[in-house]
Design brief:
alpha/beta, nine-stranded mixed β-sheet, 26% helix, globular
Length: 252
């Protein structure tokens, strides 16, 4: 891989026209061949959902830019199993997300889900999020640093990587730190309202406050003004509980 121009697939959950993915593509085009496959509209919070009961409609809206009427996972599934099946990309980048994906957020995030689908399908994948909505140009430069590092020395672990970037103007001297996921308290209560026709409607409450945000977590790194890089594994098995469950089943 060293010295070769990479082929990179970009996706996201904010939509094909979102600022984050456009800044990312512009920053990487001098070092990589870029293909964008992203939802036709904002699909934040879609997690790993797939469209199963209707076909996917795909439009090439610009050369090598595809808009998909589906979820982030649909987009990556289509890209790797159909569009690029005979010439898989070297790397999948999902983002740059408009807002953080820290701690428990990864369970709901369409940004992380797109990267996870790439990981499932055998492509090294990185999810990228800006902890804010202003300095996408800076975040794209950080992403480029990671891509160039990967080009020189491929990521040494079979894991997808979740990256959160502070919303600051300048990336010079911005430190990257390997972290673990923190955790939030439960979400705030739902908001109940009455619509103009007198029907009850409900809005999801705001995310909970940080519960585990200590040293070593992604929350702490961002609080310290550092880029958080968390390797994620897909196996959700609680291996330490297997023996306990076996004993429980034998109780009478």
């Amino acid at each position: 891989m060293n010295g070769d121009k990479l082929k990179i697939l970009l996706s996201n959950d904010d939509g094909v026209h979102a600022k984050g993915i456009r800044f990312l593509a512009a920053e990487l085009r001098d070092i990589a061949d870029i293909i964008i496959v992203a939802p036709d509209r904002n699909r934040s919070g879609a997690s790993n959902s797939l469209t199963l009961e209707q076909p996917l409609r795909v439009n090439e809206i610009e050369p090598n830019v595809y808009s998909v009427q589906g979820t982030p996972t649909d987009c990556v599934h289509f890209a790797l199993n159909e569009l690029m099946k005979n010439d898989l990309p070297d790397l999948l980048l999902s983002g740059i997300n408009h807002g953080a994906n820290l701690g428990d957020d990864v369970l709901y995030s369409g940004t992380v889900a797109a990267a996870m689908e790439g990981h499932f399908l055998g492509v090294q994948s990185i999810a990228l999020s800006l902890v804010g909505k202003v300095h996408f140009d800076m975040a794209a430069r950080v992403a480029k640093r990671l891509v160039m590092q990967h080009q020189r020395f491929p990521i040494p672990t079979n894991r997808l990587i979740n990256v959160n970037i502070p919303d600051v103007a300048d990336d010079q001297g911005l430190e990257l730190q390997v972290t673990r996921l923190g955790a939030r308290h439960h979400a705030e209560p739902m908001l109940k309202q009455i619509d103009p026709r007198g029907h009850e409607i409900y809005w999801l409450g705001p995310p909970g406050k940080e519960q585990d945000a200590g040293v070593g977590t992604d929350f702490y790194a961002i609080e310290q003004g550092k880029v958080s890089m968390t390797p994620l594994q897909v196996d959700l098995t609680a291996h330490e509980s297997l023996l306990t469950m076996e004993h429980w089943l034998k109780e009478s």
